[in-house]
Design a protein that fits this description.
alpha+beta; 2 domains; six-stranded antiparallel beta barrel; six-stranded antiparallel β-barrel; 12 strands; elongated
């Protein structure tokens, strides 16, 4: 297990010498972006990586990543000091242990591009909200204060079963699903709920899958567009 940044650098030097490949872990609007990368060289507290074009976009947008390779017992988090999208190179530094793994990062949790209305139905109440994120196994929900005439922390207890009615933009009629409360959070005047989905009929499952697939395809196109825009912007800058 890697305990200190210095140990992570030593491991990265070994990987660079052995020419072993590794994987960078990012996400773009909820879609995992995990491509292979290689270490060109290690210079002091930093390492220069050759990365995939979409990973370069994520590094530019997020300013960070996680690295995983078999010699590394855990993923290693790193900060992107510089990113050259045109050449596909990135200088990473500030290495430290991370808890994420490739398996966890493969879970797709898309974010809507347009507001998705829904209703939460706790204890014969109807609370209007909107979708924050969605996967096959769960969803994030925004509940605006104007829609809550009670203390949400008192009502939405962890593990509580909830019925939800969701109007996906890809469907003519709302779908109904059942979930349990994973956690709730009051932040910046909005109450958010994380829901684990536990029951949906075949039609609702199809609707969820179709919407996730549509958003994933759209996000992939957005990633390509972002890459082209970054290349255009960097091409106007003086090259070193």
């Amino acid at each position: 297990m890697i305990e200190m940044p210095g140990e992570a650098l030593d491991r990265l030097k070994q990987i660079a010498q052995s020419l072993e490949s590794l994987v960078l872990l990012n996400e773009y609007k909820g879609v995992p972006v995990t491509y292979g990368a290689s270490i060109r060289r290690v210079e002091g507290p930093a390492a220069i990586f050759k990365v995939h074009k979409y990973q370069a976009v994520c590094l530019t947008v997020e300013g960070k990543t996680k690295i995983q390779c078999r010699p590394l017992a855990l993923a290693v988090a790193a900060r992107a000091a510089t990113v050259d999208v045109i050449t596909g190179t990135a200088t990473l530094t500030d290495f430290r242990p991370a808890i994420y793994t490739i398996e966890r990062k493969q879970a797709v949790r898309i974010k809507p591009n347009l507001p998705v209305a829904l209703e939460v139905l706790p204890d014969k109440r109807i609370v209007a909200g909107r979708l924050e994120s969605l996967s096959q196994s769960g969803m994030g929900i925004y509940l605006p204060p104007a829609e809550i005439a009670f203390d949400p922390q008192a009502v939405f207890q962890s593990g509580m079963a909830l019925n939800l009615r969701v109007q996906l933009p890809t469907e003519e009629a709302p779908i109904e699903v059942t979930g349990t409360v994973a956690r709730g959070l009051q932040q910046e005047g909005v109450y958010t709920l994380a829901i684990n989905l536990v029951m949906a009929d075949a039609e609702a499952q199809r609707a969820l899958s179709d919407y996730i697939a549509q958003r994933r395809a759209a996000i992939a196109q957005e990633l390509q567009t972002a890459y082209e825009q970054l290349c255009a912007a960097q091409s106007k800058q003086p090259r070193r």
